[in-house]
């Protein structure tokens, strides 16, 4: 109800409740039949030990016990088959049920009711430094990049279709510089371990992080004739969250090793259909984009604190680049399917004249871990060597940052009235010391 779930989801939840009751009854029936079989088999065993000396009454008792054992076994088998069918149906229905929400999540219908938590940076600071006057109208990022001869959208569309772009020269170099800066910041200052992961994953990996089955239409599927992942349907990754989190699928970790903190720089592929207006142009919403992803695997006790830490690490990138942004807590009507609590970081874009999402930092609780059987073994409170029963991990993920959108923000915030772009100071070591990007001389 808090998520304003669709009628289909509500019906599925009701079905699950009913099936759960049926499942309990069937388990009791199956166990009853198994006990009957055990009792009848005990009688058979006892009589068979003296089978050569049975009188007619005992022989009759033996045959009745055999029949009872066989009948009970068949009934137990039928009950087990019915249980498997119920479990399959429940698993299918559960896969479409979103995560339960944290108490901090505000109730709301859509993004207009998200809760602003904080703001950082002065939107007028960079314009003043870059000498924008009242007559200067900041350009959209694609116009800035085009004027620097670094935006080759026509070539990309020719070879790949709509909503693909190609970058060249100093713009391509600037995009790479952003990604490398993010990776270096997170590995050297924030304690993340860099990982290089596959860009193709199987169905079960996407089910583990909950992109499947609900969001299959947003994924780029690979034809089975071309490739399968261990016999499963194969897909291009929509985010590095999928392969990074799945690195530990099915494992039991030790609490002493947690939290695990990973960072990965990958391309991401999304076939999502929804986009409107100028989003269909430029780098805001494309089918292929680069992202630096942060993933944490932790315990229930440290989950909320690690979520705040990961979000702060994403914010640190924006602050290092001196990009004004705001932090919002997503409401129940806007939060993602797998998240129990989510912050969006929205960067200021002067060309567009609005804040736009540049990072989503989500705490999924044990939602993903349950799907991929990712657990840890708690440390005994008494310091003994006793092995405790494994419990589910909590997983946290966020963009640190979306590279394409960070490029958008740099181009729009650091443009100058003469059409050049000032390179943010922290990116200059990755740009061979360049301080300003200017259009090549004709």
UniProtKB/TrEMBL annotation:
EC number: 6.1.1.11
PROSITE patterns named in the record: AA_TRNA_LIGASE_II
CDD domains: SerRS_core (cd00770)
GO molecular function terms noted in the UniProt entry: ATP binding; serine-tRNA ligase activity
Keyword hit for Transferase: no
Location(s), subcellular: Cytoplasm
Ranges of biased composition (kind: Low complexity): 67-79
UniProt-listed GO biological process terms: seryl-tRNA aminoacylation
Entry binding sites for ATP: 270-272, 357-360
Domain Aminoacyl-transfer RNA synthetases class-II family profile: 189-424
Keywords of this entry: Aminoacyl-tRNA synthetase, ATP-binding, Cytoplasm, Ligase, Nucleotide-binding, Protein biosynthesis
UniProt key word Nucleus: no
Domain of life from the UniProt record: Eukaryota
GO cellular component, as recorded: cytoplasm
Reactions performed catalytically: tRNA(Sec) + L-serine + ATP = L-seryl-tRNA(Sec) + AMP + diphosphate + H(+); tRNA(Ser) + L-serine + ATP = L-seryl-tRNA(Ser) + AMP + diphosphate + H(+)
Pathway: Aminoacyl-tRNA biosynthesis; selenocysteinyl-tRNA(Sec) biosynthesis; L-seryl-tRNA(Sec) from L-serine and tRNA(Sec): step 1/1
Residues involved in L-serine binding: 239, 270, 293, 397
A family per Pfam: tRNA-synt_2b
UniProt record similarity statement: Belongs to the class-II aminoacyl-tRNA synthetase family. Type-1 seryl-tRNA synthetase subfamily.
Name of the molecule in the record: Serine--tRNA ligase
The organism of origin for this protein: Phaeodactylum tricornutum (strain CCAP 1055/1)
Species classification: Eukaryota, Sar, Stramenopiles, Ochrophyta, Bacillariophyta
